[in-house]
Amino acid sequence: PFIEFIHPEDRSMVAERYIARLRGEEIPPVYSFRVVDEGGNTRWAEINAVVIIWEGKPATLYFLTDITERREAEEAVRRSEEKLRRYIESSPDAIYINDLKGNFVYGNSAGERLLGYSRREVVGKNLFDLGILLPEHALKAARLLELNAAGKPTGPDEFELIIRDGSRVWVEICTYPIGQGENTEVIGIARDITERKRMEQQLQLAGRLAAVGELAAGVAHELNNPLAAIQGYSQLLVSRNDLDALAKKDIETIYREALRASKITKNLLSFARRHEPEKRYISINETVEKTLELRVHQMKVNNIELVTELQPDLPNTMADFYQLQQVFMNIAVNAEQAMADAHGKGKLIVRTQKVDDMIQISFIDNGPGIAEENLKKIYDPFFTTKDVGKGTGLGLSICYGIVDAHKGRLYAGSKPGEGASFFVELPIIQDGQQGQGG
Q1: What is the pLDDT of residues 37-46, one digit of tens each?
Q2: Per-residue three-class SS string for 327-342
Q3: Window from 213-227, 304-318, 331-345 with minimum mean pLDDT
Q4: What is the Cα–Cα distance from 123 to 150, expressed in whole angstroms?
Q5: In angstroms, rounded to a whole number, what is the distance separating the alpha carbons of residues 223 and 244?
Q6: I want to staple 25 with a disulfide (CB 3.0 to 4.6 A). Which of 20, 259, 264, 418 is the partner?
Q7: Where are the beta strands (DSSP E) in 27-180?
């Protein structure tokens, strides 16, 4: 019986098809199965069945073709494709294929993670219709496709993409055309360089801030000499006996304001000077006061009422004075700008108090507030709601890192239209406490 030559695992399948064909059911005439040859070796056979009449009875004529080598070649190709697929899927870079019109044909897992879209949402869609390209980058992408059509690879080229959640990422893309003419497809490799771009911008910003700091220090130095002269001569004038009481009162005002200006320049010099991180035993109230002294004049110009409620018996703690000054300055400036831009005036309450074993510093404004969807992103590097040129989005992320390094917390609360509140909480650490210090 022919069934004995069929591989045991395929016998039931062949028998079922044979019986179904005798019943007149529609069965594919060509299919393959395994057979066992005389030496006991397994081979692949392809059968082509034709229904005939044999000696007056229905019968089936079979043509058997040995397709072992073909099947082995197909299996080798399948294994090779599977291996290549694993390599592509395990790549940390996004790998995709598109045609010369920009229609996506394929995308790997890294591409899904990068853009936030599934493959099914991208394959078959056009690059220019998907909404991931910024308008200013569309012409650049079209130019790359023109080069691909001419058989030329491109890259690396930088693009800023809009991903599914609305945020943006920077990628570096290289493309390689495969094929000829209209059948050309383009393999693209996109590497996420968002972090690298952030680091480059941070370095550039650090350079600009250093230049501004040096300028501020130079101006403060230049102001010190005339301020010292104003203080000295005003003291001499007050000591004269030929001046009436009203004139002396005016001169005392001049001396007092010159003294205040001198104090501000001294704080400005301290703020602009480079300092190595160093924790020491400091007064948080004093740190807040010295920080706000640098903003009092500008707040008056912007019609911002400043109210300070500093707890008198607030304990000192181990902290870096200059780093905390940077945190307090950033929060105060943000509040001031938000109120001035929204209303042309406002009120900022700065409060310190002891809460359990923490020192809490609060900055409460009556500005426009922060939208709920932005509240979770305000500490992300380079996230900003300010107009271009008015903010880098680095301030609060740096502040968050500083407070975290002090084992403290920085958090905010807000409702749109009802102002915003920022809270800095620092642990109370006694002078000389084990494990703390600069």
Answers
A1: 888 899 999 9
A2: HHHHHHHHHHHHHHHH
A3: 213-227
A4: 24
A5: 30
A6: 20
A7: 30-36, 42-54, 57-66, 94-99, 104-107, 154-162, 168-178
